[in-house]
Amino acid sequence: MMTYASLPMHLKTIIATLLFLTMTAGICTCLLVGKKQGTVKLIALTVCTAVVAAMLLLYASVIRAERAPAYIPAISLWFEQQSVVFSLLVWLAIAAFFGMVIAEETNRRRKAVTPSSIKESLDQLETGLCFSQPNGLVLLTNHRMNQLSHALFGRALQNAELFWQALVCQEPVAGVARIAAGEQPEFRLPDETIWTFRREELDGVIQIAAANTTRQHQLVDELRLKHSELEEMNARIRTYGDKVDEYVIARERLETRVNLHGFLGQALLMTRHYLQYESGDAGRILDIWKRNIDVLRLEAEPQQDADSLASLRNAAKAIGMQVHVNGQLPESPQQRKLIAAVGAETLTNAVR
Q1: pLDDT in tens, 104-135
Q2: Domain boundary residue, one of 157, 192, 212
Q3: Residue 183 is part of which domain span?
Q4: Does the first or last residue of the chain, that is N or C, have fewer Cβ atoms within 10 Å of its Cβ?
């Protein structure tokens, strides 16, 4: 059986050191977390700490001085003759119990909502926050708001009311540009970020919040640019729409003149052939000339902007035709001119 007395001096020293450290941990655990773990665990912690302290005293008393013999109590002599394995198992169980209690307390504090945990959570936010009393006494502020106070005015946030007045009225330090004032002041920092501040009262507590609105401003600028481009495009489309009717009318007239040139050439050839050889149908040739003359009269009819449809009816009446209009005519003069031009082309085709 391995006893404490049979162990070499360095092992005895190691065991005594472990017992001392365990006793110290037990005392700290009892003082710091014992009450929070409940009465039962507090009693268990106290008993375990006392057992470890007793083991330490018994083992330490049998460690003889190197030069002078020491008085060793009888109980210590008896205890050192017992199996050291049993003592180590007891120590291991107590150390495991202490570790379990410390782990439970650590986990509880991690999940529990405490003032320090609230402050730590606020400091991790990208949004700046400051809570104060109505007189400006700061109750809670996070790192982001302090950083913004230094960046804007070169000083720490010590009075929330004075800080808000500075946001509304005071000029910032060099390199910082004020974008907006009033109830929601906005500033552009030297790093090109834009921060918007807002103040509101919540149950007697004043809250000042700062939000990074850089992306929102970029989107607004992009929308303004796209809106300007759309306005320019709409202006070009309107200009084209105003002139497209004229383009269509000019094209129709050109096509009519080209076709008329062909018909006149055909009539001239037929007339020449008839005069030279006295062959052919004189009535048909005369009818072709009458139709070409009617087309020339229709083309030569002056176009009146205000009464283009009336001119179309008169031209149709002159060649023995009628114009019928079904539905409501548009009010736009350009559209009425276009309809009249199409009607004129139709009459020309009918005459042919």
Answers
A1: 878 877 776 677 777 888 888 889 999 999 99
A2: 212
A3: 124-212
A4: N
